[in-house]
Predict the structure.
Amino acid sequence: MNKKLAAALSGGAVLVMALSACSSDDGNKELDDWAKSLCGQIKPELEKSAKAQQAIISTAADGKREEIKKVDSASFQASADAYTAIAKALEKAGPPPVDDGEKIQTDTVKDLQKASKSYQDLKKQSDAMDAEDDSPDGVKKFSEDLKKIADELGKIQTEGADALESLTEGEVGEAVAKQPDCKVDTPSPSN
């Protein structure tokens, strides 16, 4: 029942994976310092996001409807909080010291805030699901609602990836990728 949601989520370790791109040793000390500052601030949020994803994946195959609803709701809230905190950390870090740094910062913060709101909306949808109706129609409705959430989750993860794209490309991406605090183990889907 929750397998599609887990598949969407496991494919969406985007937040964490995006910030773990390849790096080079060529560097700009000012940019490296900026990336170090940013990554130091967001590591707890990256870990929170990874744990939220793992929680959904772990209830996907055989979780009871009440458990799925509870875990999904908490995980969506954790993801919303993580995106908000990352946006705030990026605001605090200031623009990256590169051409168009202010635009990169402004656009990324705006996109992260949008993704956070989308996760909050998913939480509301999850909270509204009726996990107690054991009638065939109730079980069917729960499954349909869960499918809608899974479909929406796929879109949100694309938004999140797009939001982080400017932090994973070019000089900024190379500087961020060198930072150990921007590397977090990501959950792997279970079969």
Q: What stands out?
A: Confidence is low (pLDDT under 50) at residues 7-15, 20-25. The chain has seven helices and no strands. The radius of gyration is 18 Å.
